[in-house]
Design a protein that fits this description.
There is one protein chain. It is built from three helices and four strands, in the order ααββββα. It is α+β, with helices and mostly antiparallel strands and 169 residues long. Among the domains are: 38 residues; 71 residues, no CATH class. Strands 1-2-3-4 form a four-stranded antiparallel β-sheet, covered by helices on one side. A hairpin with a 4-residue loop joins strand 3 and strand 4.
Length: 169
């Protein structure tokens, strides 16, 4: 080929600067599109999560369903709190404190086969059961307690059992 047909650029610098600018423009544009794509992907993922199990894709209906579910959950939580409060009050009447004292009522005979057992609720109401064991027989006595007091007089061992029960929690 003759030399007249080969294009020669005497100064390549403006061309290279323009090439760099175009490359930089496409690079920035690509990063921008990638960022927008990530944001849109997250928005669609959130929308799909919110509309899961909903036949209608109307955003207003989806948000109304979310609000109604939230209200229903609030009512359910109020019911659970009411039930827990009831159970807590009811639990105060159940056995919560126990005190047991073993003793030997007859110092010269046997071992600690006799006992006093105090069974109380949270208001110190309940019973004291005392068992006196001898060689011939065992006798069992019960005394009722209301708010830590009784109409019957307690023996020293029954008092110890009652104090042990009142201290336990």
């Amino acid at each position: 080929m003759p030399a007249a047909f080969t294009p020669r650029i005497k100064n390549d610098l403006p061309f290279k600067v323009m090439q760099t600018q175009v490359l930089l423009f496409f690079l920035i544009g690509g990063i921008w599109l990638l960022g927008i794509s990530i944001v849109l992907f997250r928005i669609f993922a959130l929308f799909n999560k919110l509309t899961k199990g909903v036949e209608v894709t109307d955003l207003k209906k989806v948000l109304e369903k979310i609000l109604s579910d939230g209200n229903k959950n609030s009512e359910d939580i109020k019911g659970l709190i009411k039930r827990a409060d009831y159970l807590e009050e009811d639990g105060k009447l159940h056995v919560q404190k126990i005190g047991l004292v073993r003793f030997n009522p007859f110092k010269e005979l046997g071992g600690d086969h006799s006992f006093s057992l105090a069974i109380l609720n949270s208001e110190d109401t309940g019973i004291v059961i005392t068992s006196l064991h001898t060689r011939d027989r065992t006798r069992v006595y019960m005394k009722d307690i209301k708010k830590g007091k009784s109409n019957f007089e307690f023996s020293a061992d029954e008092k110890r059992a009652l104090l042990a029960a009142q201290k336990s929690k």
